[in-house]
């Protein structure tokens, strides 16, 4: 049984005077522990699809199931890591990473120790009593990852989490996030506009066309890249040819692309 299954997802946004189809006939399966990327031109519906998978938006047609159960409840066993870290500036780092437990009413010594241990594993020991403004952008994103992982979600949504960071920090965080998720056996979906990032981090890449969004092609990343850290994958001899293949396919979907 597939861990995550999307069957014939179709979504149309209706207004008083118009109807815009964002997604059409999306069917795909993701295995447990797999890291996949959604890639495509602007307007291909990646964020809409992410919202549907999370149960934040009900599709016009189709079914999303997680471990065989239809996804209907918002946020069901799903964690997010976004472009903005969305840490509460008036709360300490410790208070921020325990927020999920507080909301669910599950704050106890075990969960607190677990979250603080995660913080230490992320190289952030000693920042518990500090506030977000005292940390760098990369450190705040690591805190956001700890907050996401602390409640042990079954599925992680990574919506362009590194796009606001400088390149060096981005590369370091790609390695950290990839290594961490593999060590926990987590299933993750990355939404990105960065072809290199998608290749370096993913087991598979789902490429979408736009107007309306459709699944155009699936790329399976070679095992030698999947087994490498994202940084090492970028430097692998096979990386360049895969990049060119994905780039050309993406360009064919968006002839006026000016990247």
From TrEMBL:
It holds the Pfam family ABC_tran. PROSITE patterns: ABC_TRANSPORTER_1 (PS00211), ABC_TRANSPORTER_2 (PS50893). The keyword Cell cycle does not apply. It comes from the Bacteria. InterPro entries: AAA+_ATPase (IPR003593), ABC_transporter-like_ATP-bd (IPR003439), ABC_transporter-like_CS (IPR017871), ABC_transporter_ATP-bind (IPR050166), P-loop_NTPase (IPR027417). Coiled coil: none annotated. Residues 4-235 form the ABC transporter domain. Keywords: ATP-binding, Nucleotide-binding, Transport. Gene3D superfamilies: P-loop containing nucleotide triphosphate hydrolases (3.40.50.300). CDD domains: ABC_NrtD_SsuB_transporters (cd03293). One of its GO terms (molecular function) is ATP binding. SMART domains: AAA (SM00382). This is ABC transporter ATP-binding protein.
